[in-house]
Amino acid sequence: MSFASAAEPLRAANLLAGRALYRIRHFGAEGGNVASSSGIGIETEPIRDASPELSALFVCAGGRPAGWASPEVHSALRRLSRSGTRLGGISGGAFVLAAAGVLFDRDFTIHWEHAAALKETFPELSPRQARYVLDRDRLTCGGGVAPLDMMHALISERMGSAFARRVSDWFLHTEIGEASAPQRAALAERYGVHRPPLLAALERMEAVIEAPLSRAEIARYAGVSPRQLDRLFAGHLGRSVADVYREIRLRHAIRLLRQSPLDISQVALATGFASPSHFARTVRAATGLSPSGLRRAGG
C-alpha cells in the first residue's frame, strides 16, 4: 500500500496534466524482479544505475529492518546524497537511510512500528512522531496512506495547491493530513478510556520502557494515590497496573525481536526484564514461542 500511495499520485498528475510531469523509475539492490510485501513483482533497475540527474529517490521498505542491509544500496544513497539528490524514506525506508549514514543532521519520521528498532540501532537519531517530514533534501513519511499526504505536498510545491487538490480528489482523498498529524490513534481511542489520570499513567508507561517505573512513581505522575491508580485500572481496563505495564513492554519487545538486530539479551535489557530467562518465560507464556522462535516466525 505504501508503494502505491507514493507512485499513484505521480501517475495521476501526469494524466491530469496531459503531459509527463514525472517519470517514475524503479530500482532494486541488484535489479530484476522484486516482490512487494503483497507478492506483486516489480521490475527494477540496479541501484548502481541511479544517476545524480534524478530529482528524488525514495526508499520504500517494510518488514524487518535488520534484514535490509545492502552495501549496494547504502553506497548508492551516499553517492546521491553527495550529489545533492533529494532522498526519501517511505514506511521503514528511513531505517535504510539511517544505515547509509545520510540522516544524521536531518529531521525525519518513520512508520511507528519501526521507530523502536531504529532508536535502539541508532540511538543518536530521534524520529518525529509525524505523518511526514520534509527537511531540505530529505523527504520521509510513515507508510500506509501517509505517502498520499506527502505527495500532495510535493506536487503542490511544483505545480501549485489547486493542481495538487485535483490529484488528491482523483483518489477521493478529500481529507489531506497535516505533516505534523499523528500516525496512530490517540491513547483514549486505543485503550477506550477517557479519564485524564488514567491516560497520563498510560502515556508515561508507554514512554518509559527500559527502566520500568514503580506503581508509586506512575501514580505520582498521574496525580493520584497508588490506591486510586489501582481502582482506575481495575475499573476501566479490568486489569492491574503491573499487568498492563508488562503487556506494553512485551509488545515493545516483540517489535524489537522482529525488526531490530539486537540479540535476545539486549532486547530483554531494553524492555526492562530482569534477565534473559525471565524474558524468555514471559514471551513463551504470552505467545507460545521462545524469543528466538518468535524472531524466526516474524522474519
From TrEMBL:
Note the superkingdom of the native organism. Bacteria
Query: Record keywords: Transferase included?
Result: no
The record's section on Pfam families has: DJ-1_PfpI, HTH_18
CDD domains with a match to the protein in the record: GATase1_AraC_ArgR_like
Q: Does the keyword Transcription regulation apply?
A: yes
Ranges for domain HTH araC/xylS-type come to: 199-297
**SMART domains (alphabetical):** HTH_ARAC
The record's listing under SUPFAM superfamilies reads: Class I glutamine amidotransferase-like (SSF52317), Homeodomain-like (SSF46689)
User: Which is an annotated GO molecular function term of this record?
Assistant: DNA-binding transcription factor activity
What keywords appear on the UniProt entry?
Answer: DNA-binding, Transcription, Transcription regulation
Instruction: Please state what the protein is called.
Output: GlxA family transcriptional regulator
Q: Which organism is it from?
A: Jiella endophytica
